[in-house]
């Protein structure tokens, strides 16, 4: 404790707020991540099955989903935050804090994760799909028993990568008062020139990212066959 007080004097004075910032970051990642993973898998599957030559080829649906994802991916997240502010206020009643960050985070990460899922599902060869259809599997059975079941490992890797990216977005959201470690670092480390706060926040973020990467690699390796 003596060493910590010497190296991180300002941070140690704000430990309760620092702990709350860590909790807020996990809440934002947990809620927005859960929503994004569900939507991303849905959109990723839609892209695969409705594309030209897909098992449920639908040109209009594919074009709408594909172009919408491209549109959202082309908008920098910091601009997306301010662009969605009226929508966020209308839905959750506030544009700041943890609640105010959920909708922009979801809109920012779903397009990214959808492309990751699409890429993972593309690894399933067309021969495997044709064989499944020849065995009499319905399109829904092909989706769940072939596409998703055989893509568990790459999807886990996509979830790991997306979660790490999401942590980065939560830190960026702190620039507009979204709460969490990003907001904590900007409020004290940047605005009040307390460098030890910034360094301490970065150390915690790096530790969280390393832990997520480690767990993701283990889970992906366990499901690789």
UniProtKB/TrEMBL annotation:
It is found in: Cell membrane. Residues 22-216 form the ABC transmembrane type-1 domain. The chain crosses the membrane at residues 20-49, 70-88, 94-113, 155-177, 197-216. GO terms for biological process: D-methionine transmembrane transport. The keyword Iron does not apply. Belongs to the binding-protein-dependent transport system permease family. CysTW subfamily. This is D-methionine transport system permease protein. The lineage of its organism: Bacteria, Bacillati, Bacillota, Negativicutes, Selenomonadales.
């Amino acid at each position: 404790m003596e060493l910590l007080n010497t190296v991180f004097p300002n941070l140690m004075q704000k430990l309760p707020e620092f702990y709350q910032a860590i909790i807020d970051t996990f809440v934002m990642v947990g809620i927005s991540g859960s929503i994004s993973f569900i939507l991303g898998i849905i959109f990723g599957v839609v892209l695969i099955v409705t594309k030209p030559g897909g098992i449920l080829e639908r040109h209009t649906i594919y074009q709408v989903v594909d172009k919408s994802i491209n549109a959202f991916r082309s908008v920098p997240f910091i601009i997306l935050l301010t662009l969605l502010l009226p929508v966020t206020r209308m839905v959750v009643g506030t544009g700041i804090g943890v609640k105010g960050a959920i909708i922009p985070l979801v809109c920012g990460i779903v397009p990214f994760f959808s492309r990751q899922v699409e890429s993972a599902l593309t690894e399933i060869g067309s021969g495997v799909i044709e064989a499944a259809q020849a065995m009499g599997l319905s399109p829904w059975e092909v989706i769940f028993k072939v596409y998703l079941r055989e893509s568990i490992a790459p999807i886990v890797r996509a979830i790991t990568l997306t979660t790490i990216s999401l942590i980065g977005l939560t830190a960026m959201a702190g620039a507009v008062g979204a709460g969490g470690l990003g907001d904590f670092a900007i409020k004290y480390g940047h605005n009040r020139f307390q460098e030890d706060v910034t360094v301490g926040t970065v150390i915690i973020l790096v530790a969280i990212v390393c832990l997520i990467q480690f767990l993701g690699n283990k889970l992906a390796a366990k499901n690789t066959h």
